[in-house]
Amino acid sequence: MSLAHGYAAQDAHSPLVPFAFERRSPGPNDIRVEILYSGICHSDLHQSRDDWGGALFPMVPGHEIVGRVAEVGADVKKFKVGDIAGIGCMVDSCRHCDNCKADLEQYCFEGATWTYNAKERGGERLTFGGYSDHIVVDERFAVKISPKLDLKAVAPLLCAGITTYSPLRHWQVGPGQKVGVIGLGGLGHMGVKFAKAMGAHVVMITTTPEKGADAKRLGADEVLVSRDADAMGAHAGSFDFLLNTIPVGHDVNPYAALLKRDATMVLVGALTELEPPLRGVNLMFGRKRISGSAIGGMAETQEMMDFCAEHGIVSDIETIAIQDVNQAYERMLKNDVRYRFVIDMATLERAPA
Ligand SMILES: [Zn+2]
Ligand SMILES: [Zn+2]
């Protein structure tokens, strides 16, 4: 066992505070990673406030983790001490179901083991996430990161990055296609960068015209303001693929109208009911599809990390001290971040705010 230090929510109504806890000693297939940076995902805020139910406290959030390997188990093959490793939303899965065998551990029939707000597989011990000084994880659930990348800006790739990369790959986005990215936040800004790097003609679809200039800086070829009915009409039936990153229930009908015949819109943000309901006719005429996608498997997360190294892709971030994590949550609620907060874990040694 090793003593870890981090920040935890003790219940759904209190701010995060300093917290000490134990990590397991590395087993034969485990690596111990000293955490350098931890991104802040919207789900961290929602889970620590139990907005989705089932929260397990104390809770150390964080599933966008970048660190340096400090110790490796006897059977570890992928990593050596000193390597840079990334850990995302999962730390384990059953490994024998059809989905795990297909390298889609996130869809494990028995349920993947989440990086925090879960119990370790086969035990009662809670998993604790990246807002902490180190983590112990099976090497299957860690990816290798090129040290040439800006490591603090790599952290959000472990959730926001793979969540957008995986559907763009699955639906084979590439040159000659017109691809729309709906919503410009932590997910959307990565969707624009990836779709552009894959060679597509990228249209940023946003309710906020002011975000247009930023979308173009990120690589969008065009900006479509979804509140402009004439502009939406001009783009009707013209998209090969839509990546919908809106994080709340919303009206998908106007977006369905943008799809070409047989084209797909994939939801990666909205977990809850779509309001108002989807009208069947909006899919029937044009044989259109609406699908969903959740993060990505470990093999694909490694593929994404290699793609980012090759194309020099990282997230746009604002670095904070861990003592400021509660203020960062408040700013996220006001969408006051471009586009991801990342905690510099070296600040853990400072006195609590
Ligand atoms: Zn996340
Ligand atoms: Zn499984």
Describe this structure in words.
This protein has 353 residues and is an alpha/beta fold. It has two domains: 2-159 and 316-350, Alpha-Beta Complex (Quinone Oxidoreductase, Chain A, domain 1), CATH 3.90.180; 161-292, Rossmann fold (3-Layer(aba) Sandwich), CATH 3.40.50. It is built from eleven helices and 17 strands. The model has no long low-confidence stretch (mean pLDDT 97). Helices cover 23% and strands 26% of the residues. Strands 3, 4, 5, 8, 9, 16 and 17 form a seven-stranded mixed β-sheet that branches. A six-stranded parallel β-sheet has the order 12-11-10-13-14-15, covered by helices on one side. Bound molecules: zinc ion (2 copies). Residues 93-94, 97, 99-100, 108-110 line the site of one zinc ion. One zinc ion binds next to loops.
CATH architecture of the largest domain: Alpha-Beta Complex
Q: What is the gyration radius calculated from CA atoms? A: 20 Å
Question: What's the name of the CATH homologous superfamily of the largest domain?
Answer: Medium-chain alcohol dehydrogenases, catalytic domain
CATH fold topology of the largest domain: Quinone Oxidoreductase, Chain A, domain 1
Principal-axis shape equals globular
CATH class of the largest domain: Alpha Beta
